[in-house]
């Protein structure tokens, strides 16, 4: 065969071989790809089936938390103090919003958004996960809901969500006692369990709302909702865990007495507290002036908060818990009792009051209120006429160590343990306290004025009321408290709480108590508050207190009170019936002429509002409890 014929044949064979190799390589490549695809398919469909199935289900089904209904708060007679009202809020899920600033700007044209609303939202957004709904605006009006509904399509990730908001029907009357709830902020999230508060926008901030948050909050529930690609709900699936409502609380406070106490102040700044000395139950607790707690529930505006904060009368200050008052002569019955209990005096022992008292070896005079003195007085007369000399000399005999030790038995210088947060401990003058505070020794002159409630003394109205209640119950101390009963469910009966003692009896000899009691009875009969017991059905035991407040700015003494006449802090303490007390009262005014002329009349009005009707009122409470038991619980 010629060479030119053989060459095309060789080229044909070469091309066939090349084609076969390429086909084989192609089949191998396709096989490897199919094998890899099969392996990947098996990996996704078998090994990670559960994971991707869950993701798919999550895209189709949304697990939505159900916030529990917050427990209600009642007074001792079943009057509603804190309730829940239906409302709507705007809620944003950040991961579903592409351009958040633009969305907020557009949304603000439809629904009013304040700078405070946006600031709170931005703070919460940093503290929460992107997939969590964050409240932007609470308590929408019907008009705002309608406007947003029309434009809902333009705001993916924004929803109108129903919720229960707190309301305080009696407003400022219980602002400091019941307190208020507020929007959950970044600080709250650091102390709260996020799972327990999923779907909840409010938490207790002050008062009973804060102290009993765990009881009031309840337990969160969950429901599953089928959604579309835009996460808009289609329908609720039957798989649902219902939330458990919080407990309903019944307080020891009586609304009628609380209102009468506030009215008795006539708008003057100060504090008053009434306690049942037999149990420590607080019957009324007033700090004046007050404020509307409803302002805080859905977030108070910066302007409103600044106004409250800068008001000269400080309405946000709870004077009962944190108000610092010099007790003045209200401390004298306790000092007199200390002299008897420590065997330094007998009730019949007398002291000569000439108008001035001198520490032996010193020339400084410590004065009596009566310029020329009260003459020779025994314990009863010393308390009734508030004779300083008697207590100057007694405090000096006791010495500061025995003085402070005995006064501490009544709870001075320490917190009472009331079921509220933020209580101040006050100041009980002592050698240890002054050394820690000033690194100085305690001088005899400071001991002398401590005996009449002056000097370093600082008490809160609650502390003084606790001490008076202990004295009224013959030395038996009880922890002051506001919670009277708890209702765990709408169908259950309110369960009363046991009475708590705060320690052993602080009075060793009953005769000593009778002597001091007689002195306090004489205070309102013929003493510094004479006439207070007129036309009252029970015998009142009381003591006035007038603590001078001056600021020396020039050569002259200048009053720092609002009026030159009312230049003192004035107080009055009382309990009645004197021999079997059912109520103990303390009234403190920040500016007044004297405890007798200003504070005592307020205390009389408080006693008139409670006695003699407390027995009938107690019958109403018992009947209320029986009705609740028969009906399967008190209706919301």
Could you describe the 3D structure shown?
This protein is of the alpha+beta class and 636 residues long. Helices cover 39% and strands 20% of the residues. It has two domains: 62-250, Penicillin-binding protein 2a (Domain 2) (Alpha-Beta Complex), CATH 3.90.1310; 255-619, DD-peptidase/beta-lactamase superfamily (Beta-lactamase). The strands form seven sheets. Strands 2, 3, 4, 5, 10, 17 and 18 form a seven-stranded mixed beta sheet that branches. Helix 9 (255-265) packs antiparallel against helix 20 (595-610), helix 13 packs across helix 15 and helix 15 (388-408) crosses helix 17. The radius of gyration is 37 Å and the shape is elongated.
Which secondary structure elements does this structure contain, and how are they paired or packed?
Blueprint: H1 3-47, H2 49-60, E1 61-66, E2 73-74, E3 80-92, H3 100-107, H4 115-127, E4 134-137, H5 142-150, E5 158-167, E6 181-183, H6 186-191, E7 202-204, H7 207-211, H8 213-217, E8 221-227, E9 233-241, E10 248-251, H9 255-265, E11 270-276, E12 281-288, H10 294-297, H11 302-310, H12 319-322, H13 332-341, E13 351-353, E14 356-358, E15 365-367, E16 375-377, H14 379-385, H15 388-408, H16 431-438, H17 444-450, H18 461-472, E17 483-487, E18 495-496, H19 510-525, E19 541-548, E20 550-552, E21 557-559, E22 568-576, E23 583-592, H20 595-610, H21 614-631
Parallel strand pairs: 2-10
Antiparallel strand pairs: 1-8, 2-3, 3-4, 3-5, 6-7, 8-9, 10-17, 11-12, 11-23, 13-16, 14-15, 17-18, 19-22, 20-21, 22-23
């Amino acid at each position: 065969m010629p060479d030119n014929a053989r060459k095309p044949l060789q080229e044909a064979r070469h091309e066939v071989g090349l084609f076969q190799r390429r086909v084989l390589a192609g089949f191998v490549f396709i096989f490897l790809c199919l094998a890899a695809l099969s392996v990947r398919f098996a990996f996704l469909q078998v090994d990670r089936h559960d994971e991707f199935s869950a993701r798919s289900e999550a895209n189709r089904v949304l697990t939505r938390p159900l916030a529990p209904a917050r427990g209600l708060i009642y007074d001792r007679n079943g009057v509603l103090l804190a309730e829940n009202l239906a409302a709507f809020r705007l809620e944003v899920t950040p991961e579903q919003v592409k351009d958040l600033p633009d969305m907020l700007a557009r949304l603000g044209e439809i629904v009013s958004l304040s700078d405070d609303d946006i600031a709170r939202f931005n703070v919460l957004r940093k503290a929460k996960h992107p997939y969590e709904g964050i409240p932007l605006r609470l308590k929408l009006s019907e008009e705002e809901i309608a406007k947003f509904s029309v434009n809902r399509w333009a705001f993916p990730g924004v929803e109108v969500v129903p919720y229960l908001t707190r309301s305080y029907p009696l407003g400022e009357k219980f602002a400091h006692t019941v307190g208020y709830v507020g929007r959950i902020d970044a600080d709250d999230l650091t102390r709260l369990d996020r799972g327990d508060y999923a779907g909840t926008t409010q938490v207790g901030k002050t008062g009973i709302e804060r102290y009993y948050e765990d009881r009031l909050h309840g337990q969160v529930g969950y429901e599953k909702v089928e959604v579309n690609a835009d996460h808009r709900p289609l329908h609720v699936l039957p798989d649902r865990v219902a939330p458990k409502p919080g407990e309903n609380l019944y307080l020891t406070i009586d609304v009628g007495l609380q209102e009468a106490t506030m009215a008795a102040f006539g708008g003057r700044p100060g504090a008053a507290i009434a306690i049942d000395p037999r149990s420590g139950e607080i019957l009324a607790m007033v700090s004046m002036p007050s404020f509307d707690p409803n302002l805080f529930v859905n977030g108070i505006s910066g302007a409103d908060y600044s106004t409250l904060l800068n008001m000269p009368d400080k309405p946000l200050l709870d004077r009962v818990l944190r108000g610092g008052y010099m007790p003045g002569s209200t401390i004298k019955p306790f000092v007199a009792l200390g002299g008897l209990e420590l065997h330094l005096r007998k009730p019949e022992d007398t002291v000569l009051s000439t108008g001035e008292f001198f520490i032996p070896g010193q020339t400084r005079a410590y004065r009596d209120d009566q310029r020329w003195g009260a003459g020779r007085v025994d314990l009863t007369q010393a308390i009734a006429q508030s004779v300083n000399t008697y207590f100057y000399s007694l405090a000096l005999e006791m010495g500061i160590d025995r003085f402070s030790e005995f006064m501490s038995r009544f709870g001075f210088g320490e917190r009472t343990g009331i079921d509220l947060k933020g209580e101040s401990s006050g100041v009980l003058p002592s050698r240890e306290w002054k050394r820690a505070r000033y690194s100085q020794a305690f001088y005899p002159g400071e001991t002398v004025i401590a005996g009449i409630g002056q000097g370093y003394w600082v008490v809160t109205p609650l502390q003084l009321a606790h001490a008076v209640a202990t004295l009224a119950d013959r030395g038996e101390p009880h922890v002051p408290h506001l919670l009277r009963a708890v209702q765990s469910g709408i169908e259950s009966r309110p369960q009363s709480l046991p009475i708590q003692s705060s320690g052993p009896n602080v009075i060793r000899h009953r005769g000593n108590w009778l002597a001091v009691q007689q002195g306090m009875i004489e205070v309102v009969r013929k003493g510094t508050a004479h006439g207070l017991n007129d036309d009252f059905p029970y015998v009142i035991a009381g003591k006035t207190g007038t603590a001078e407040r001056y600021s020396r700015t020039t050569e002259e003494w200048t009053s720092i009170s609002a009026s030159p006449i009312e230049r003192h802090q004035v107080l009055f303490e009382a309990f009645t019936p004197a021999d079997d007390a059912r109520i103990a009262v303390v009234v403190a005014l920040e500016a007044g002429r004297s405890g007798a002329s200003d504070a005592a009349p307020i205390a009389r009005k408080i006693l008139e509002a409670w006695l003699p009707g407390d027995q009938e009122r107690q019958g109403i409470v018992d009947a209320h409890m029986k009705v609740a038991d028969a009906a399967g619980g008190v209706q919301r």
